[in-house]
Amino acid sequence: MRWYQPEVIPGVLQVEPYIRTIDAIAHPRPPTDEVDRQVAVRMERQSILRQDDGPDLSFIPSESALRRSVGDATTMRDQLLHLAEVSQQPNVTLQVFPVQRTDLRDGIVQLHHSALRGRRGNGRDLRRDVHRRRLP
User: Fold this and answer.
1) DSSP of 76-116, one letter per residue?
2) Distance (Å, rounded) from C-alpha 46 to C-alpha 85?
3) Could you give the CA distance from residue 4 to residue 10 in angstroms, rounded to a whole number?
4) CA-to-CA separations, 125 to 25, 83, 90, 111, 114, in angstroms, rounded
5) Gap between the Cα atoms of 61 and 3, Å rounded
């Protein structure tokens, strides 16, 4: 399965606070019980990411989706950490379409767990970086 979702993190990759923030700005805003149902459904769908015999999944969010603040800094930190963890699954491919590129055919950057390590292989871990840095 392939997902290209340019402006927000694909639903199956969203952490709960991210889902709730997106639903809170929806128009018309769904009732609380509907938001709770949508959160439960999305969280259940995420089990596909951890199945040993799960399908191959490919996600292509745009760089702007990763940089856009949805919720507070804690929500974005947790969301980025979740993406880092999910990208380590053998059946998951996470690619990012850089903002500077205009042609999807040659502009996608492949991300996987080794690409989420510190710059130039210095061993810094994304988890430490995300906790230290102020998110955009």
Assistant:
1) HHHHHHHHHHHTTSTTEEEEEB-TT---HHHH-EEE-GGGG
2) 13
3) 8
4) 33, 14, 19, 14, 10
5) 8
| Tens-place pLDDT, residues 106-128 | 555 555 444 444 433 333 444 44
3-state secondary structure of 58: strand
Distance CA 95, CA 28 (A): 32
For the whole model, what pTM was predicted? 0.72
Number of domains in the chain: 1
Phi and psi torsions of 93, nearest 5°: -115, 125
d(CA 128, CA 136): 16
Placement of tokens 């999910």 in the chain: 86
Tens-place pLDDT, residues 65-88: 999 999 999 999 999 999 999 988
Give residue 40's domain range.
2-132
73-86 and 16-24 helices, crossing angle to 10°:
130
